[in-house]
Amino acid sequence: MTSVRRLLAAAPAPSTAATAERPADPVPPRRPRLDWRLRFAFLSTVWGFSFLMTKVGTQGYAPFQVTLGRLVFGTAVLAAVLAVRREGLPRGARTWGHLAVSAFFLNALPFSLFAYSQETIPSALAAICNATSPLWGMVLSLVALSEDRPTRRRVAGLGLGFLGVLTVLGAWQGFSGIAPTGTALALLASLSYPIGWIYVRRNLAGSTHSNLSLTTAQLLLGTVQLAVVTPLFTTFPTSFPMVPLLAVVGLGALATGIAMLVQYGLVAEVGPTTAQMVTYFTPVIATVAGVSVLGERLSWSTPVGALIIIAGAALTQSRPKGAGRSRPVAGAPAHAEPVDPDGTSTPEPAAAGAAPRQP
């Protein structure tokens, strides 16, 4: 033992040059990130203006063409980021089959219905109808998801929300002044989202693929679905009006592709509880945009009903004090708890394996 100590003591100390040549432990550089409040404001604004952009897009192109363009540009943004990060698309026929269903209910169908609805109703009314998704979602989740249980708070929120719907529609006036077909299409679109959410929670919540990979594949499948349907119901445009075209590009690139990426970062950083608050700003911004930019006229009952709907939706998603929510882990699978690209959050937080919300 003594001889070993002597040998170690006699061993020459490492030179300064040798120490300098030895590679240091890798320290990943910290990427500067924009404050989450600014990203939250960006997301609220973009999703709020998505209804205005849809309205402007339908002034130059058929609704199916607007939806197809939205999906094309949204997919292009996510595919570019996927390539930069050197990630691949999901594998497995089963996963792709489930993604095809979720693409239909969360993208192709509601986007198309909202586009068709805005041919006859204001963009602000479409946004308010979109805000009813958590209400529909709560009703459906109580039936389809065994872990969801009705509470007095949620039932009260549901009743308050649908009272808001009746206020928006002017039920005491016999729904006069409301285009019934357009309103019905917008409400049907809002119902499509929770159907897709429930399907995703039951079939894709445990996926090991990344948020980006799953979402890119979902939008790609939605694009294929619209690419098949659009030529059957529309003719190729003979002209390309610039303003509607820019609206479609913004709708896809900003309100779908980039907004999804921003939303993932928000959920990972501040958690789903804070991130889902964008839900309550979207219809407000959409209403302001529709009135100020498009000159849409609204009766007093529309904004009042919208506030009642938002309050009801918030009540259905709130929890009593002490019932904490788990904070999601960055990089967890995307499809456990989605948010649609127009800002409506899932009706109930956290399925098994809580994860960032996305459309």
For this entry, give a set of tags.
14 helices; disordered N terminus; 359 residues; 0% strand; mainly alpha
Overall description:
The protein has 359 residues and is an all-alpha fold. Mean pLDDT is 79; it is low at 1-30, 324-339 and 345-359. The protein is 65% helix and 0% strand.
Helices, by number, come to 14
Main beta sheet, described?
none
Compressed to H and E, one letter per element, the order equals HHHHHHHHHHHHHH
Overall number of strands: 0
Q: Please give the alpha-carbon distance between the first and last residues.
A: 67 Å
Provide the residue-averaged pLDDT: 79
Radius of gyration: 24 Å
Low-confidence sequence ranges = 1-30, 324-339, 345-359
Specify the overall morphology: globular
- The percent range for strand residues is under 5%
Class from secondary-structure proportions? mainly alpha
Binned, the helix content reads 55-70%
Task: Give a brief outline of the structure.
This protein has 14 helices and no strands. The protein has 359 residues and is mainly α.
Strand-helix topology:
Elements: H1 2-10, H2 16-21, H3 36-58, H4 63-84, H5 93-117, H6 123-130, H7 133-144, H8 152-169, H9 180-203, H10 211-233, H11 242-270, H12 272-275, H13 278-292, H14 301-317
Helix pairs in contact: 3-6, 3-11, 3-13, 4-5, 4-10, 4-11, 5-9, 5-10, 6-9, 6-13, 7-9, 7-14, 8-14, 13-14
